[in-house]
Every structure is written in structure tokens, then in C-alpha cells.
Input
Amino acid sequence: MNKYIDLHTHSTCSDGTFTPAQVVKAAKDAGLSAIALTDHDTIDGLKEAIDAGKTYGIEVITGIEFSVASDTEMHLLGLGFDIDCPAITSVLDEMIYQREIRNHKVVELLKNIGINISVDDILAEATSKVTGRSQIAKAMIKKGYVTTVKEAFDKYLSHGKPAFVKQTSLSPEKAIEIIKQSGGVSSLAHLNQIGKSDEDLYKILTHLKSVGLDAVEGYYTEYTDDMSDRYRKMASDIGLKLTGGSDFHGENKDGYNIGTGKGNLKITYDLLKNLV
Output
């Protein structure tokens, strides 16, 4: 009997709507055997998730999703690292600071196009010290500029849109180094969102493999079948392993269910064993 996993989930410690313990409970209810909690630029929820895993009989993998510097948009997952390792803990305060700077820049760009929200409006939507585009989107909803988080991203906050501000503080090479120093595995997330041609993506992956990248997210609910085939072949050709996940955010990503995403995911436990 196959066991199923989800290596990409979010909680209220970044931009999800479930607490870490509720994420683990949802995984249990969905029949999963293991999950990774991969909040954006924070590990604050991991101890709660690990404790909940012991309660519910779910294997909880330590995780994080680093926002890294890129000319488009790039995120790196760290999995299975030591949460007490100074290599990873020392960089997180700087990541929070850089997010605060980005929030101010986004607010100014939105004002330039007639959308008036403040940093205080963003903070009012926060459930943790990590604030970003999801909280900005919620502030926009509250003031009537958009009706959903997705609409805010699609019209204003995603790469190429008028209020997009890229992350600049942490290079992908440095993120990979930090994850490796902490005993973890690094994986480049949602390749479809990087906004590169397959040729350019192959070059990026080849370079990152040369500096220690371990894997790519080969299973992701937004991939078409063709994308999945292309990305997995690319990973195989370069010698990278595969990870996979739903990118579960609770109510902030409506229709993305833990474990199954939009219904098209079945990620077997073998994938996790192959990462070790």
C-alpha cells in the first residue's frame, strides 16, 4: 500500500491560514504519512508542527521556502535541516528586515497607480512577524481594490505586474550553502513561476547544481502534464533529485488541498526516501 506525502505547505507563521498544528492535523485527515512545513523565510512554526506530528502520527520534515535574488522570481526549498543550526537561524532576521523594506516599496508602487494602502494596513493582516504579498493582498481586499488574493497577485503583485518588487537580499547560491551547512536538502520550487525558457532554465539548474543544488520540484499542482514531463527530464539529465508538494496555504489558496493540490497530485513516500 502506497504512502503519500506533501513537501510544500504553509502555515500562519508566513502566509497560510492554518496554524502549524492545524496543517499537520489536515495532513492526518488527508491520509498522508509525511509533510514538510515550508513557510516563507521563517522556521518559527517547525517546533509546533513537529510536536503535532508526534500527536497525530505524522512524520514532519523540517522545511523553509527561501525567497532568493533573481531577475524574475525564484524560491528555494530547504528540507530536512537542523533547526538549531546557526547557519540557518542567523540569516532569518535579515530576511524579515528585507521583507519589511519590500513592503514599503510595494506600498509606494501601489500609490502611484491609485491604490492607497499603508504599511500599518499590511501589519493589521499579519498573523506572524513574516509579512509580504499575501498580507498586502488582504489589505487591498479590505479596502475594496480587489475581491480575492489571486486577483491581487494576477493584476498587481506578481512578476511583471505594476507593484512587483523582487527579493534582493539572499542569492540562490548562498541559500543553497546555508541549507547544506544546516544538514538539509535544497530544491528549486515551482519551476513554472520562474518565467524562463526551458533553455535558460536548464542553464540555471546546471549552474545551481554545480554549487550544490540537490533537487527540483518535479511534482507541483500548477504544472501541466507537459511541464511535469519536461521538468523531470531536465532534472534527470542534470542529475537532480525530485521533490513535490501542493503549496498548501489553507484559505489563502482556495482549491489547493493538502497532499493533492488541485486534485492532480499523488506524491509517494519513495520520493522522500530518495532524497536522503
The chain has a mean pLDDT of 94. The chain has two domains: 5-86+170-275, 92-157. The two ends are 21 Å apart (CA to CA). DSSP finds ten helices and seven strands in the chain.
